[in-house]
Amino acid sequence: MALLVFTTPDLFVAGAEASAQATSMSFSREGAELDATTFGSEGWAEVRGGLQTTELTVDGYADFALGALALDAQLAAALNGTTEFTVTPEAVADGSLAFMFSGLLKEHTPIDGEVGQLAKLTFGMVGARSPLVRGTVLSSPRTNRVASGTGTSRQLGLVGATQRLWVGIHCLASTGGTITPRIESDDATGFPSATTRATGAGMTAPGSQWLSVTGPIATDTWWRAAWTVSAGTHAILVTAGIQ
Amino acid sequence: MATLGLDLRELRQAVADALGQVDGLIPHRGATAQIPTGSGDQAVVVVVYPDDPYVSYHESFGRSGTVSERGAVARVNLLVRAYVTTADWTSAQDTLDELASTGAGAGRSVFDALMVDRTLGGVVETIHVAQASAYRQDQDTGYLMAEWALTLTKRR
Is B156 within 8 Å of B55 (Cβ atoms)? Predict the structure, then answer.
């Protein structure tokens, strides 16, 4: 990916897609600057990194056409609780780059605006014990899952002793049954001896969840999403990254 | 919810169709060779022109829509221009006033005709009619005219 004209990202929050409603977004990660200056600092201020925070703000147009599936409805249900957010800089697809986190949905303005203008919405989140993770799409919601299966294997790497594998899952549509996502790893791309590293909760409706796998995992560098489908049709986004 | 896709000809036709519901209006979705083509004091030709900027493709994030994706929001600016003959100047001005009026008693309102169905039959998400211009004499035709600026919002 070269320089990017920011027109076609895909944004997902809770169990909704915000791509075609959002008009701007800001996603930042910042560490606190702690003063550690002493007489021994030889005349220079000295600082240390403190607690890190991740913050997100999204602005867009209000659109209530999808009823219970609408972004507005999903945000209203998730407000003041923890939910998940994922953005892909370009169209979401298996293997594409993604940035995601889990956080407190602290702000939701469902409708705002001026006479004669399109009504707007705003929502904001702040990280809740989760970093802003640079990850990879392991399952795209553009392909409906109607049977149990696995995604394409991706070489994400080893998980160090101080690291975790972070997994974001958004279910955008689920009808007629349950889909239960999980994450598998192996030491070869063909997954000759797959190990299940994390299993999410079964999903029967739009929603999201956040999983993490504690390091170290010193043998497996290959990772993939897998899912068990009891029945029905499901659209899920699974992203993962090591941090 | 309006259909996906951005067919500009369809949009201009939808506006012309809505204006066709007004008694005595002869709408065209584009420029005609002769203006006006009607006759008599009450006959008014309205032409739907592109306004500048004509199309703004990226009013939201997103791409052109598919079955699994909602289309990005696009904005289309149009200009409705009404022409009346000037055989009787007073009558011409009264006619344009009648077209620019709205609400009770305004039987030939351009604004009201476009607001009856803000989706124009499901073609757009919404239409906004912000203002009507003062009338003036068209230098090309000599007829008296007024303009309405329309903004159409559509998922492409």
Answer: no
Q: How confident is the model at residue B37 (pLDDT cuts 50, 70, 90)?
A: low
Q: Which residues of B touch A60 (CB under 8 A)?
A: 60-61
- Cα of A236 to nearest chain B Cα, Å: 12
Beta carbons of B69 and A118 less than 8 Å apart: no
CA–CA gap between residue A105 and residue A9 (Å, rounded):
21
> In which residue are the tokens 């049709």 written?
A233
By Cβ distance, the residue of B72, B126, B128 closest to A20 is: B72
pLDDT band of B141, cuts 50, 70, 90? confident
Q: What gap in Å lies between CA A232 and CA A178, rounded to an integer?
A: 7
Q: Which residue of A has its CA nearest to B57?
A: A7
- Can you tell me the ipTM of this complex? 0.83
Residue A80 to residue A84: CA distance in whole angstroms = 13
DSSP string computed for A100-112: EEEEEEEEEEEEE
Six token digits for residue A108 = 């939701």
Under 8 Å between Cβ of B19 and B114:
yes
Beta carbons of B60 and A61 less than 8 Å apart: yes
* Model confidence at A132: pLDDT above 70: yes
CA distance B59 to B22: 32
Angle at A228 between CA A226 and CA A229, to 5 degrees: 130
Contact A19 B61 (CB under 8 A): yes
Residue of chain A with shortest Cα separation from B131 = A116
- Nearest C-alpha of chain B: how many angstroms from A186? 32
Taking the CA of residue A64 and the nearest CA in chain B, the distance in Å comes to 10
pTM over 0.80: yes
How far is residue B76's CA from residue A237's CA, in Å, rounded to a whole number? 33
Position B1 scores a pLDDT of 58
Flag if A116 and B1 touch (Cβ within 8 Å). Answer: no
* Whether residue B66 has pLDDT greater than 80: no
